[in-house]
Design brief:
This protein has twelve helices and 14 strands. The chain has 431 residues and is of the alpha/beta class.
């Protein structure tokens, strides 16, 4: 009664052995030919078995463990993977085959896990934060501001910016990069004050994927495109103001982009940097959890896409990985249509310093100003100086009492601190 199951088991074992031998054989024949050729051994004649001339008598065969093995006249066995060059190809190929199978299995598990992380962490409605005061943004649309102008980037796209041109003979151009979700109007009060005092011409761009009429809201074409766009904008500014020195600054995530720019291929285009409560990294000593409730990152999706990008698989980089909790008072207001409430993986990555943000900070050798408020709901102002000075020796650090994250944009103390720094910068010798 037990004979039939045993026969089936024996048949299955032999079938697996045959499949293994067949798989190794296909690769073995190729390797055999390569070895023979490299050692100068003539290939077998067409129509004959390897190592057996067509006019020779067919040798006898024996069967050892289910595999056919040729027996030479001397009684020795000429294994199918035993090359005429004398190399035992089976012994050479078998471990390679086993390792290759393990690698392929591991790669399959890795990619499956990455895709599962991406697919199981979907965007949802972001909850409004209870502790982040965004009221300062609501009034930016009522301030008299310059009209939007446009510049052409290296890929032919027209991107918008506002120019707060100083009436004085200013020889400094200050680029201010807005934070997450908003656009160039964020800096209307601050930019206006700086230009009116003759300290600098101020340029505030709508970063790609933001503003009133972006091509694709919340997305860019590739990681690093922001840096290329800024380099093109600096070229435009230097054409408009020949000989002017350029200071690159930013607020929040825009400050993080300024840090990334410093550590990238275009960092030397800037003669100075201004960081207003900058984002450095989600786990930097300066960052509160989830940026104080303002941002909702899709952590599993970010991890999965990072795993895919490690193998050069960028096809899913357009997917949303972070959402922002903009209050309904802003969304329902006159500027609600210009808000960007979610970012793709590639835009979010391009916006922030590189994972090793210390290397980006270490690239800043130009004059540096860092300003933050000690009531910031998103970042820890007291941690900026020890965190940044660990990587660069340049810099002035100012912590303003009672100033919030968004309040920094309209605070008189912040305006005074920036004015004093720009006066010293303008009076300094050019490098």
């Amino acid at each position: 009664m037990q004979l039939r199951p045993r026969l089936r088991a024996l048949s299955y074992a032999r079938h697996r052995q045959w499949r293994y031998a067949s798989s190794v054989s296909a690769f073995g024949n190729v390797m055999q030919t390569i070895c023979d050729h490299s050692l100068g051994v003539a290939p077998a004649a067409h129509g004959s078995r390897r190592g057996t001339p067509a006019d020779e008598e067919e040798p006898m065969t024996d069967t050892v463990q289910g595999r056919s093995t040729a027996i030479s006249e001397g009684g020795s066995m000429n294994h199918p993977f035993h090359s005429r060059s004398g190399l035992n190809m089976e012994a050479f190929i078998a471990p390679i085959w086993r390792v290759s199978r393990l690698v392929l299995i591991g790669l399959g598990i890795y990619l499956t896990l990455a895709l599962a992380l991406v697919a199981t962490n979907l965007p949802t409605a972001a909850a409004q934060p209870a502790d982040l005061d965004l009221s300062a943004l609501e009034g930016t649309g009522t301030t008299a501001v310059p009209v939007l102008q446009f510049y052409t980037t290296r890929d032919g796209t027209q991107l918008a910016f506002r120019l707060y041109e100083s009436n004085a003979e200013a020889d400094t151009v200050l680029l201010l990069l807005h934070g997450s979700a908003w656009h160039s109007l964020q800096f209307a009060p601050l930019a206006g004050a700086i230009s009116e005092q003759g300290l600098a011409h101020v340029v505030t761009p709508d970063l790609r994927g933001h503003g009133f009429t972006p091509t694709r809201r919340g997305d860019v074409d590739y990681i690093g495109q922001f840096e290329d766009d800024l380099a093109d904008l600096i070229e435009r500014a230097q054409t408009r103001f020949p000989g002017a020195r350029v200071v690159v600054g930013g607020h929040s995530l825009g400050g993080g982009l300024a840090v990334r720019f410093a550590g990238g291929p275009h960092g030397t285009l800037a003669d100075g940097y201004v960081l207003l409560a900058p984002f450095l990294k989600h786990d930097a000593p300066t960052t509160r959890p989830n940026a104080g409730g303002w941002a909702r990152p899709l952590v599993r999706r970010i991890v999965g896409l990072s795993m895919l990008n490690a193998f050069g698989l960028t096809q899913l980089n357009h997917l949303t990985v972070i959402q922002f909790a903009m209050p309904e008072t802003v969304l329902a207001g006159p500027l609600g249509a210009s808000v960007t409430t979610a970012y793709s993986y590639r835009l979010n990555t391009a916006y922030a310093p590189r994972p090793n943000y210390g290397a980006d900070l270490a690239a800043i050798r130009q004059p540096l100003l860092v300003i933050a408020g000690d009531a910031d709901e998103t970042f820890i102002a007291a941690q900026y100086e020890p965190t940044i000075t660990a990587h660069t020796g340049t810099g002035s650090y100012i912590v303003l009492p009672g100033v919030t994250h968004i309040g920094l944009l309209t605070d008189e103390g912040a305006k005074a601190a920036l004015r004093n720094w720009l006066e010293a910068f303008n009076a300094s010798d050019r490098p």
